[in-house]
Amino acid sequence: MNVILKETIESLGIIGSEVKVADGYARNYLLPQKKAILATVQNRKLMAQQKVKLDLQIAKERGMAEEMAKTLQGVVCTIPAKVSEENRLYGSITVRDILNALAKQAISVDKKMILLSEPIKTLGSFQVPVRVYKEVEPTITVEIIAES
Question: Is this structure's pTM higher than 0.90?
C-alpha cells in the first residue's frame, strides 16, 4: 500500500514522502495515528500544495537536529562498572546504561537514537554514534572504568 507521510518516521522516510508499506502497518498504525494518508491523486495534489510548508518543517527539524548534534559531539560519558580480577565486566554496558549516564549530564536522547551495535563487555573507551536525524550522526565517547 502506498501512503504519504504526514510526519518524519525514522524507519520509513521524511515528511511528505510517498512510501510503500505493508497493508496491515498502514491500516493498523499509520492511518489511525494520523502519521500518514493514502497516496491517492487527490492527496498527492493536497501535499503538493502544502510542499512549501513541509519544506519549512523539514528545514526546522534538520536545524534542530544539527544544533543537537553540536551539543552531542565530543561528549564524554563515563560509566563505572564492576569488574573481575581479569578486568572483565560482570554483565555488560547497554544502551540503557549510556542513557542513564547521559541523563546525569542533563542530556536527553531517545533510546532508538543510540546506535550501539552490541553491548560493551570490556573496559576502555568506545566511540558510539547517535542518530539525531537522517544523515546527522555525531559520536559520543563512552568510557568504561572499574568501579572502586
Answer: no
Query: For 65-96, b where at least 16 C-beta lie within 10 A, e where not — what string?
Result: beebbeebeebebebebebeeeeebeeebebe
- DSSP character string of 102-137: HHHTT----GGGB--SS-EEESEEEEEEB--BTTB-
What digits encode the pLDDT tens for the residues 56-104?
887 888 888 888 888 888 888 888 888 887 777 888 888 898 888 888 8
The single residue listed with the C-alpha cell 562498572 is 81
- Secondary structure letter of residue 10 according to DSSP: T
Beta bridge partners of 133: 136
- Rounded Cα distance, 26 and 33, in Å: 10
d(CA 10, CA 12) in angstroms, rounded, equals 6
Q: CA-CA distances (angstroms) from residue 49 to 37, 43, 112?
A: 15, 10, 33
